[in-house]
Amino acid sequence: xxxxxxxxxxxxxxxxxxxxxIVEPTDAIIRLTATCxxxxxxxxxxxxxxxxxxVMGHEYVGVVxxxxxxxxxxxxxxxxxxxxxxxxxxxxxxxSGYQSQCVHGSFVAQTIGTQSERAxxxxxxxxxxxxxxxxxxxxxxxxxxASDVLGTGWFGAVAAEAGPGKTVAVVGDGxxxxxxxxAARQLGAERxxxxxxxxxxxxxxxxxxxxxxxxxxGDEGVAKIKELTNGLGAHSVIEAVGTxxxxxxxxxxxxxxxxxxxxxxxxxxxxPGIDLFFAGIHVHGGPAPVRRFLPELIQLIWDRKIDPGKVxxxxxxxxxxxxxxxAMDERRAIKVLLTV
Length: 340
What we know:
The protein is of the alpha/beta class. The chain is built from 12 helices and 18 strands. Helix 9 (244-253) links the parallel strand 14 (234-239) and strand 15 (254-262).
């Protein structure tokens, strides 16, 4: 099969690899219909994380080709959406709604790699969710978004307690931030402030439900949020970047007693304890338990109530994955869909 391999930072290749096979009775083999490049894939691409001939990709939809003897919830021929974290969905942590911290959990990225033609998915019953039927082609991008960015943005909104009567600020205009806007709207937020400097992303944010756009960053961004909220700050803030500046901006934009949901992957972020102490806010986040939300999100997509697939603004064949990485690194694309 063909699969994307990152040899080292900036060096992405599509290579012939051995087809996956059933190893454990809880495994399933899927033939991918579509996959994509995530903003977090840019960390190794830019040298922030080590990269040494590692398989890439963790977002995936496709058709089940083979199942192990113990798999009961999916069958051969099912079209499935999978989480970017493997989970059994039965352990105590999973049952509490945090499947991304499953006691048997593992990350699909760098281990399985789903920028490929096929993939072996461990704990298939706990990780994969079948769709109600074979989807129409136009639904594929939206279902693929559910595998990570939609579920992650949704968790950010839930962690920030977005809801009716709330003002929500979203720090970050990448795919996850835009999905946070969508989620806040679906959860009933009264006002949604998207922080963005890019006209095409601002337009998409408004499509997903943003009522206000703030172009300022850092302290100026915080001041603007407070200006828009009678000096108080937002009830709910979604942090969807993971940098020092975005994290402090999110903390500063949250009103006392408010909630900040952080879902940006943090590197070298140091929060001064005194700043967090006097902020007086609730802080919750981390790797999103996408599996918790998948059944609901799939149904919303199936019923055409949401259209997260618009977040993909560049589609390329799997063989052109390297160009997709370059386009996202240079911010010429929000998110790249790879056809298989």
